Amino acid sequence: MNPTYDFTERVAFVTGAGSGMGLATARAFAEAGAAVTLTDVNADALTSAETELRDAGHRVLAVGCDVADENQVAAAVARTVETFGRLDMAYNNAGIQSPTTDAADEPAEVFDRVNAINLRGIWASMKHELAQMRVQGSGAIVNCSSLGGLVGLPGRGAYHASKHGVIGLTRSAAIEYAPRGIRINAICPGTIETPMVTQMFDSGDLDRAEAAANQPINRLGTAEEMAAAVLWLCSPAAGFVVGVALPVDGGYTAI
C-alpha cells in the first residue's frame, strides 16, 4: 500500500500525461486532491486521459504540447496558472526512445530529435515552471531521467546522452533554487511496463524476459510505482531531499 498525501489546493503539471508513467502520476496527483494540468503531443491519448480524470470528479486541464517547442511549453504553463492560479508541483516526464544503433551509424537527425524531446524538453519545462515557482517562493519539480542516465549500454548513445543530461540539469538547478524554497529532483526508472516499452518489445528492439531478468527484482516495474516515487519527492515527506537522481529500477544500478 502506498502512502497517502493531501495535495488539496495544490496544482500539478505533468508532461507526457496521455499514457504510461505520465498518466499514472497525473492520476495519483488528482486522487491526492491536486488540480492537474495534463500535457501530451498525442491528442487522442490526451483526450482519453482528460476524460478519465474528469469523469472521476477531478479538476483537470488538458493542453496539447510538444515539449521540443519551447513556445508550446511556455503556453501550457501559462494556461495552468491562468486556470488554477498557481503551480506547486511538476513532473517532467515526456520522452522518446530510439532503436539501437551502432554509434558510428547513428544519424544526426535521430540524435537531435531524441535530445530535443528528452533533454531540451525538460530544460524548457523546468525553465517555465521555475519562472512561476520563484514568484511564489515554493514548489517541487521531478524530472524523468532513466537508468540510462546512470549507466551506458551499447547501441543507445543518443538516449543515454539525453538522460545523463537530465541529471546534470536537475542537479545544477536544484542547487540554484533550493535557497528559494523550490526542490528539484529526478527519478531514474528501470524497465517499466509502459506503452513505449511495449512498443520496443513488439519491434524486437528489447526482449521482455531478458529485461525482467536484468533487474534483480526479476520483473518489470509499473507506472504506478514510478508515480509513487514522484509523489513522495513532491511531498513534505521529502522536504530535505534536493538534487537527487533516484534509481527506481528494481536494483539494476545496484549490480
From TrEMBL:
<keyword id="KW-0560">Oxidoreductase</keyword>
<comment type="similarity">
    <text>Belongs to the short-chain dehydrogenases/reductases (SDR) family.</text>
</comment>
<protein>
    <submittedName>
        <fullName>NAD(P)-dependent dehydrogenase (Short-subunit alcohol dehydrogenase family)</fullName>
    </submittedName>
</protein>
<feature type="domain" description="Ketoreductase">
    <location>
        <begin position="10"/>
        <end position="190"/>
    </location>
</feature>
<dbReference type="InterPro" id="IPR002347">
    <property type="entry name" value="SDR_fam"/>
</dbReference>
<dbReference type="Pfam" id="PF13561">
    <property type="entry name" value="adh_short_C2"/>
</dbReference>
<keyword id="KW-0520">NAD</keyword>
<dbReference type="InterPro" id="IPR057326">
    <property type="entry name" value="KR_dom"/>
</dbReference>
<dbReference type="InterPro" id="IPR036291">
    <property type="entry name" value="NAD(P)-bd_dom_sf"/>
</dbReference>
